[in-house]
Write a structure and sequence with these properties.
Blueprint (H helix, E strand, L loop, with lengths): L2 H16 L1 H14 L12 H13 L9 H60 L10
Amino acid sequence: MSSKSTNSNARTEQEQASGSDDESSNEDADASNGLKIALPEGSESVSDAIVTHREMLREPDQHGLATDEDITHLSEAMETYSETVDEIRQQHDETDTDIDELQEVIEHQQAQIDELQSMVTSLAEILGTETEWRSFE
């Protein structure tokens, strides 16, 4: 006999000898550690429950989840929100385009300002004076 089978036999004998108190504590431990899912009525397994839920979602009015009026109202609301999202997305794109154009204008103006400051500084040096510039960065 191998040592594995000897160990398993010894454990089995200890479990049997420990009595019903240990069995109830093992059942409590199994109950707290196990995953329990409440299945809908008529479902015998998780796969049955999944199928049942899919059917309920496909035809909610037949399963008491929503009335035809609720479905119509929600569908109309979704269409309205979808249109609103499309409009906002278009406005966002237009705003991004405007921002890009403004950034280009600002960069061009900054280049012109730098060039003008350079010219004025050169002229001031020729005249023997100094210039001081304030920036708004």
